[in-house]
UniProtKB/TrEMBL annotation:
<dbReference type="GO" id="GO:0005506">
    <property type="term" value="F:iron ion binding"/>
</dbReference>
<dbReference type="GO" id="GO:0019285">
    <property type="term" value="P:glycine betaine biosynthetic process from choline"/>
</dbReference>
<dbReference type="InterPro" id="IPR001663">
    <property type="entry name" value="Rng_hydr_dOase-A"/>
</dbReference>
<feature type="domain" description="Aromatic-ring-hydroxylating dioxygenase alpha subunit C-terminal">
    <location>
        <begin position="143"/>
        <end position="317"/>
    </location>
</feature>
<dbReference type="Pfam" id="PF00848">
    <property type="entry name" value="Ring_hydroxyl_A"/>
</dbReference>
<dbReference type="GO" id="GO:0019133">
    <property type="term" value="F:choline monooxygenase activity"/>
</dbReference>
<dbReference type="InterPro" id="IPR015879">
    <property type="entry name" value="Ring_hydroxy_dOase_asu_C_dom"/>
</dbReference>
<comment type="similarity">
    <text>Belongs to the choline monooxygenase family.</text>
</comment>
<comment type="pathway">
    <text>Amine and polyamine biosynthesis; betaine biosynthesis via choline pathway; betaine aldehyde from choline (monooxygenase route): step 1/1.</text>
</comment>
<protein>
    <recommendedName>
        <fullName>Choline monooxygenase, chloroplastic</fullName>
        <ecNumber>1.14.15.7</ecNumber>
    </recommendedName>
</protein>
<dbReference type="InterPro" id="IPR036922">
    <property type="entry name" value="Rieske_2Fe-2S_sf"/>
</dbReference>
<comment type="function">
    <text>Catalyzes the first step of the osmoprotectant glycine betaine synthesis.</text>
</comment>
<dbReference type="GO" id="GO:0051537">
    <property type="term" value="F:2 iron, 2 sulfur cluster binding"/>
</dbReference>
Length: 320
């Protein structure tokens, strides 16, 4: 039996690879962005627009949603809002500028998730996800959970280093003691679909004696290439790993929560602890990659199924 091998080590640090990835991966297909509740009017930071940029293809969205249940489409305008607006324009001046801008294609699912595509003729949304995504997201109501906090910072690791870590959980038991306590890592598994994966872990939380319902296993979905939705314990976390160079990323997080401020802070602290543990691990890993110690290795087709899956997609798209 031939074991799958990892991507070449040089790809993990290469600015040149990023240029190819932009053209062949990031500018193609549908990209998960966030539940639409991120774009409601009256943002905490007072911003009228939300700037997004997965990889050198900036676009922005107006934070103008008043009733999330009435919204089935979202406009995404190409450009940087800070270069276009001073904040002193009248509504009609803003409208005029917006009307002149090119727009990215967008798709809002019935459950309230926003996706963006940069292709001039976008592929059919459901077919792009192999007609397999609905079964996981359409039973949920992502509009019911309010956006509570966002966070963005740069990290010293490349996107491949980060996604390698997200797509397996062999490191979880020793890197994330809190997560390993809440979820039974022995039963961690990754199911692979078309352009996305579902991660599964058994909750260690036992249902009460009078409560015959099983604990909520949560919903963890990885969207190729660098975004994910993690929905559990009444909270929802989204990350977008946006490559900056071959060995640098901007990490963007959005946290959604249904509950009191106090409960949100507990959820947030838990989610942030896991994210901070991953930064340390990925930055240390990137240092080793930069030093040239690592060349290529084999992957465990069972325990590293998620890594095998996404690396195969990366390889296929880059080599075409
Ligand atoms: Fe991790």
């Amino acid at each position: 039996m031939t074991l799958p091998v990892t991507l070449p080590a040089s790809w993990y640090t290469s600015d040149e690879l990023l240029g190819i990835a932009k053209k062949k991966i990031f500018n193609k297909g549908w990209h998960f962005i966030s539940p639409i509740t991120k774009f409601t009017r009256d943002q905490e930071d007072g911003q009228r627009f939300c700037q997004l940029d997965l990889l050198e293809n900036p676009f922005f969205i107006e934070n103008s949603i008043e009733d999330v249940y009435q919204v089935n489409s979202v406009e995404a305008y190409y450009g940087k809002h800070k270069c276009l607006f001073t904040g002193h324009e009248t509504d009609s001046q803003v409208e005029h500028v917006l009307s002149t801008l090119a727009r990215a294609s967008t798709h809002v699912t019935k459950s309230g998730l926003l996706f963006v595509c940069h292709e001039s003729s976008p592929p059919d949304f459901n077919a792009f996800f192999g007609n397999q995504l609905d079964q996981f997201i359409e039973g949920k109501d992502f509009r019911s959970i309010a956006h509570r906090r966002k966070l963005s910072y740069e990290c010293d690791y490349g996107f491949l280093t980060f996604i390698d870590g997200y797509q397996e959980c062999l490191h979880c038991a020793y890197t994330h003691p809190g997560l390993a306590k809440a979820y039974c890592m022995d039963f961690y598994k990754v199911e692979t679909y078309t352009n996305f994966c579902r991660h599964l872990a058994d909750s260690n939380e036992k249902a009460g004696e009078d409560d015959t319902e099983a604990p909520d296993p949560g919903l963890f979905i990885y969207f190729f290439p660098t975004c994910a939705l993690n929905f559990y314990a009444g909270g929802m976390g989204v990350f977008r790993c946006c490559p900056l160079t071959g060995s640098k990323c901007r990490m963007e997080f959005d946290y959604f929560f249904d509950g009191s401020d106090e409960d949100f802070e507990k959820y947030y602290e838990f989610a942030r602890q896991v994210a901070i543990e991953d930064i340390e691990l990925c930055e240390a890993c990137q240092k080793n990659l930069e030093s040239g110690i690592y060349q290529v290795g084999t992957l465990n087709p069972d325990k590293e199924k998620g890594v095998v899956y996404y690396q195969k997609l990366i390889r296929e798209k880059i080599m075409v």
